């Protein structure tokens, strides 16, 4: 039994399940999934679909945070990629053509890749603090997006493009498959190859890993490129969802929610060990909490208060001081003492 | 200004020319000097480009008036950044205290209660962040993120829409002009300048201020020296929160209303102004007067852009580019001084 609640996904999962239970009790329709024309609908399906942009951004953020970095520019990259995609579609003769949309998406993601590479260059090559290096693009990126759209909110009417966010692939939303694909690909690359271990090594001690022959520069650079690309895809999904490029609103605050999701999932902001499954659970917690707050009839503008409370509770529970207090409470049982101290060390 | 950041190792360096020895001794000041140079270049460039219509008494007075709230925020931010922390909450705190004050005034609460309540509200959020950072080992980024969410949400809890302020005492802060020829100064501008003056005094001439620099230089050493690190660090965040409250007052007076959407992204402007002013984000180096210059650079760019009728999008791009320039310059300076050691 102690094995289970020592697992690092225990608390995030417990929080998610609690939220789902509270929701199902408060509104019985929460768990209901209806089938219409062979497609599934319901509150849970909505959560899966709407979480796609945050999921992608948070996955990239997980890897960046694992290298001891942080990427504040993801929201701005989302805005740029959405603006690029819509400008390409808007400028073409045939907005409804699948080929046009494919070109637009590829161009948008490539631009996002370049922006991610720029962040990586500042951090990995010039050695600028990640928080400030990505702040540059966070400030300038929205300006660039505004210039691309000419200061207007570009709107398009393109069936293939809106399929990205609202369409269904067989029974489930297409956007859900995008996030599943991203999770699977990332888990495969990070956990079935040595890359994940090397990333953690760079995060735990950059200097030691460099001396051990790890090419930390390339790994850090790659992390920011990955984060940029995923943010670019997220930007396309966001733009597809509202069928418009809104340079000011696209991805606003998403960097903060993504960081929150990563922290909720048990990945330390100090870098090193990371958990992709934890981030997935973290994103689902945030999305479910948002849906709950909306259901409670709280104006969405006031929802940050709830998130603030969540952040404070999570960080206080994770803090060494509280861990120590909890540890001394459980110390009476000798069997749990050793792993407990180990955990405290990891958390510190 | 004092030069305590000069290390003995630097002084050992051979000083071949007066200029070189000056630069060596004042390495920490170079970024701030660079900011002054940029400001002068900007002003001169705008003056030349706009055929002498730019540097007028009215424009320069408006510069301080329009950016008084940002200056107050930047001063508070300087304290936090000097301790190697960061405070993302200031923009939201400004919105929260602004709308709180407006709501209190509209409900008929006298101004001598409403204004202290605003300042206390800001300081309370700062205290929360400081306690999380110091006593629960939360990274400043995350702790102040919680503060950002909390203040922004609370602003909307107070009111979902904007509230007009008709209290003469608050509007007096904005509408009064102390004139000297064509130059003028509003009470909000005076508050901002007083904030700078008090901050300069505190940072350079008090034990508390020197402790702030010591923490930013090396927290472990500061603790081993027996300095009261815990109290000082919490106080830095409280000061930043208090400045957020003061900025809320200045902005409410400036716009004549409280609005819960005020100040989205202003924390980034404040951080940018502090960094452009030559304060290192790694802590321990920088000057409040530099932040004043940073805010003036920021305000001048804004004025130039609106004069040229260019799109406001350029504002974000130019500030981003300037930020980049300054952090690269800082990076070089830090790398050079580390090599000296």
TrEMBL record, chain A:
Entry's Gene Ontology molecular function annotations: transmembrane transporter activity
Keyword list, A-Z: Cell membrane, Membrane, Transmembrane, Transmembrane helix
GO cellular component: plasma membrane
Membrane topology according to the record: Multi-pass membrane protein
Record InterPro entries: ABC_transp_permease
Region feature Disordered, mapped onto this chain: 328-348
Pfam families listed in its UniProt record: BPD_transp_2
Transmembrane intervals: 40-65, 72-89, 101-124, 131-153, 165-189, 219-238, 250-269, 276-298, 304-322
Subcellular location: Cell membrane
Protein name: ABC transporter permease
TrEMBL record, chain B:
Matching InterPro entries: ABC_transp_permease (IPR001851)
Pfam families: BPD_transp_2
Keywords: Cell membrane, Membrane, Transmembrane, Transmembrane helix
CDD domains according to UniProt: TM_PBP1_transp_AraH_like (cd06579)
Bilayer disposition of the protein: Multi-pass membrane protein
This protein's name: Sugar ABC transporter permease YjfF
Keyword Glycoprotein recorded: no
Compartments, record wording: Cell membrane
Record lineage: Bacteria, Bacillati, Actinomycetota, Actinomycetes, Micrococcales
Gene Ontology MF terms: transmembrane transporter activity
Any one annotated GO CC term: plasma membrane
Residue spans crossing the bilayer: 28-50, 70-97, 109-133, 140-163, 183-203, 234-257, 263-281, 288-307, 313-334
Highest taxon above the source species: Bacteria
